[in-house]
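User: Please predict the structure of the protein below. I'd like the answer in structure-token form so I can feed it into my own downstream comparison script.

Assistant: Understood. Taking the following sequence of 78 residues as input:
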Amino acid sequence: MLQTTDTGGIVVYPFKGDNHLVSSFRRDAFRLIEQQCKAGYSIVKEGEARGRTRVASPVPGAEESIRERRWGIEFRCK
């Protein structure tokens, strides 16, 4: 959960590839929303959020830049 208020919030989850809908983290994100909004919710908007780039070095001297993508869902409780 990135941000919560009494009336809703924003949840962000990581995903790989081009399809955020098949990420196992999406299911977790909706569980968090359901916990926050016991009487139901509506999605205000969703889209790709700012991710991050990290440098990995599996072999010394062979650095690789890895871009981590994230998807955000803004919701409002009923």
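That's the full token string. DSSP finds one helix and four strands in the chain.
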